[in-house]
Amino acid sequence: MQFTNAYVTSPLCCPSRSSILTGRYIHNIPMRNNTLAGNCSSRAWQQGPERNTLATHLKNAGYTTFYAGKYLNQYGRHSVGGVRHVPPGWSEWQALVGNSVYYNYSLSNNGKLEHHGRDPDKDYLTDVITKKATDFLQRNENSSRPFFMFLAPPAPHQPFTPPARYRNLFNDITAPRTPSFNTSCNNTKHWLVRKAIYPIPEPVRNWIDESYRNRWRAMLAVDDLVAAVMDTLAATHKLDNTFVFFMSDNGYHLGLFNDITAPRTPSFNTSCNNV
């Protein structure tokens, strides 16, 4: 499945996520980048926009709300409350501490630290989110209250770590060679775009291809998550009364205008619509 007409308001993780949560453009939040100084999960964010989000509105309307996965890049920092800080509006909170990772990470389990290691059968983050989501649905099967569930697996965000069960698939796949792949950037491009190396060295092209394969492999675990949630909704007789939205916070270049992975350079909005 490809989303050929999908856009986000920012090519950066934290600003884009804050926009999704609040329904506001990032300059109105304001959220500048992925750092505390840029207002990413900062005290100013916590004391302002975070108090007026999708979750707070829905909880005030009587919904049971559930969050699992990546929240904001700086979430869980000790200087801004650590894992004890649970944003308002969430009935249940299972948020990743920090930025995207798949093993050796910590979650805030309703304000308490929960650490996960490297066991491929127990700790792969996408699978942990899947288990927590289906458990939530099963526990609330007989509830008369409506629910809102926000699932945020980091996949396929860098470091592109696939689950062990899929790591040998797609060995012949390569990243798309679009007209902007490995292209010389002339003086009409933004100065930051012109800093990219041209041509892309062969070892780097090989790395891009392997990263692309690992993104596909990682996304299979997201497919498993979606299937498990849909199956559980059906089993708990809630599927016919549930809206499901699938979205992303940004996309990656993978060689477009010679940018290797970053979603933040101004390459004609590719990272805003390659979601």
TrEMBL record:
<comment type="similarity">
    <text>Belongs to the sulfatase family.</text>
</comment>
<dbReference type="InterPro" id="IPR017850">
    <property type="entry name" value="Alkaline_phosphatase_core_sf"/>
</dbReference>
<feature type="domain" description="Rhodanese">
    <location>
        <begin position="62"/>
        <end position="102"/>
    </location>
</feature>
<protein>
    <recommendedName>
        <fullName>Rhodanese domain-containing protein</fullName>
    </recommendedName>
</protein>
<dbReference type="GO" id="GO:0008449">
    <property type="term" value="F:N-acetylglucosamine-6-sulfatase activity"/>
</dbReference>
<keyword id="KW-0378">Hydrolase</keyword>
<dbReference type="InterPro" id="IPR024607">
    <property type="entry name" value="Sulfatase_CS"/>
</dbReference>
<dbReference type="InterPro" id="IPR000917">
    <property type="entry name" value="Sulfatase_N"/>
</dbReference>
<keyword id="KW-0325">Glycoprotein</keyword>
<keyword id="KW-0732">Signal</keyword>
<dbReference type="InterPro" id="IPR001763">
    <property type="entry name" value="Rhodanese-like_dom"/>
</dbReference>
<dbReference type="Pfam" id="PF00884">
    <property type="entry name" value="Sulfatase"/>
</dbReference>
<dbReference type="GO" id="GO:0005539">
    <property type="term" value="F:glycosaminoglycan binding"/>
</dbReference>
